[in-house]
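Human
Can I borrow your eye for a moment on a structure tokenisation matter? Give me a protein, with the fold worked out from its sequence. Write it directly below this note and I will take it from there.

Assistant
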Amino acid sequence: MKKIVFLLSFLCLAIGVQAKTLIVYYSYTNNVETIVKELSSQIEADVVEIQPAVKGLDYAANNYAIGSEQIAAIRNNPDNAASYPEIDPVDVTLADYDCVIIGAPLWWSNMAAPLQSFLFQTGKEMAGKKIGLIVSSASSGISGVEADAKRLIPEGDFLTPSLWIRSSQTSNAKSMLEDWLKAIDYNNLVSGVETISMEINQGYTVYSMSGVKLLLNVASIDGLEKGMYIINGKKTVIR
């Protein structure tokens, strides 16, 4: 009996973690939607489409005047929620995901305004998560969209490189996405195994992914909500 108790006191449990991915996108001309459909066929992910609250707007009218005005409002006051156009409510629990891939059209050198609205509302919830960025544009470079994403998700762990698919390249999205997933080492990113010590005499110290200490040397972590944490120095997903 003593031998059994001795063995149990040093028992460790390895927990395998299959990271979950969320794809979030907005699409007006359907280029991004085409790209996201192709991406969804290559990886296992949940998909959320962002929709403006005001329906029927003709963004293409007058050389995309509506979109230009929305981007200008955000540029002028990026910290004010009123600067961002209203969007439909989004039913998603970001704590369930370890990786978020953003599919973004480029408007006037910036990320499309409706998608910026979503990230303004939720960016802080993405702290510590892997963030991938796919940008569709006619010709302009994507540095402005990358800057928007990093401003709106200040503590995101951004994957490099971002993927830029010009409008004229949308038909080649399959091969471009395949190459990009290899470039960011996506398969290894989502298939890691985390090990946390479950020794009977060992306590747990828990930090949020942004470095905030949540628990110190506690006997149980049963009360933690779903999400990603640093537990005893190891990145761990609680499901």
Remarks:
- Confidence is low (pLDDT under 50) at residues 1-17, 193-201.
- The longest strand covers residues 99-107.
- Residues 61-76 form the longest helix (16 residues).
- Residues 206 and 215 are 5 Å apart (CA to CA).
